[in-house]
User: What shape does this take?
Amino acid sequence: MKKRKKLKICTKNKSYGIIDSPFYKLKSKRKLAELLGVSMNDLSILRKDEGNYSVFEQLSKKGKPRKIQKPLEKLDVVHTRIASLLSRIVMPEYLHSGKKNCSNVTNANAHRNHEKMMTTDIKAFFPSTTRVMIFSFFFSVMKTSPDVADILSHICTCHDRLPTGSRISMPLAYFANSRMFGEIYEVCQKLKVEMTVYVDDLTFSGANVNRLFCAVIRKIIGKHGHIMHPTKTKLYAKDKPKLVTGVIVLGDCLKVRNEQHRLMARDIEYWKIIKDVENAKETSIAKTLFGRLHSMGVIEPRYKSKVLTLKSNTSS
Assistant: This one.
């Protein structure tokens, strides 16, 4: 049996503004079908939830069950196509997720300063991005016809919500909420506050970041149908260590968080047991350790040399 090729978001190195997107001012359902590489009949079938998704629960890193809606093969191909087309649209500088050469580390790096900071996230961001929001994006921002926007809003949602297990989730979560992010960014520009977005994590740094600023941001997020997470919203005094998308920001330095140091120490103890075994480099223990140290090296370069040292002391 031929193994199915793993689908990936593909931009073909294309980058353009919204008005140059093939979705922009798309008025014909037939042209939509051609753009997505499906038949007119497929458009009717793929807009239904039943038979197009695998729905299951998965434990998060903290052990909490999380419902996943994963598109099945045919819809997965269409979602990947839509995600690929959306990812070709130029994103704002403040967005650090789903962009080439951007990551949680570049997101934290933007806040290397000695200013006050606020970190927060949007509660249940994907599930709280609704079909109505997605319809509004395609109809009002992309200026498609109502019937094209309606079809796309159904194809891109499961039970009227953005699915959590699709390639479409990250780019569409941004675009469906781009007006909210844009409004927040305007406030930040006026107050000379640095703002970054990483999926559902928002980070702000500047002299004007305070409780009043926090209340303004909460109000904007609420106006757009979302909730600013009450227990994940933190205000930091300047010159204090700040946790930003998994990275510690301390003044103008980035540091690896203590949790990663603890896991590294544990992995090294495992490595000591297997390092002299034949083909030790190919074991999951060695690969996990080297991968962890590489990730830590992106934040603090000194860990990159540690990878080389350990690799040279590991049996091939």
In short: The radius of gyration is 22 Å. The first strand starts at residue 53 and ends at 59.
